[in-house]
Specification:
102 residues; 3-stranded antiparallel β-sheet; 4 helices; 3 strands
Length: 102
Amino acid sequence: MAPTLTHPKGQSIEVPDEKVEYFTSKGWSTEADAAKSEPVVEIPDGDPSDSWTNAQLDKLAERDGVDFAGVKNKGDRLEAITKHREAATAAAAAAAGTGSSD
């Protein structure tokens, strides 16, 4: 299988093995290069707080399916996560029949 290379602007192409060196010398990267360059972000234990980095909050949101549309800062991120968790808790309670009934 031909290696896939990615241009800094995002375009990806497959090239024969003998052409990889040429393309990488022009700024293209291999999948292995991309994996090495991405920092590993660990999600801390406990509830998210101001002490968490934006990268940690982003990773948590990605894992839990939190919608970050329109977020601009850490406060927005924390608010979106809190609302998502409250909605998930309410939905779980309703599904279990333990929600409040009026």
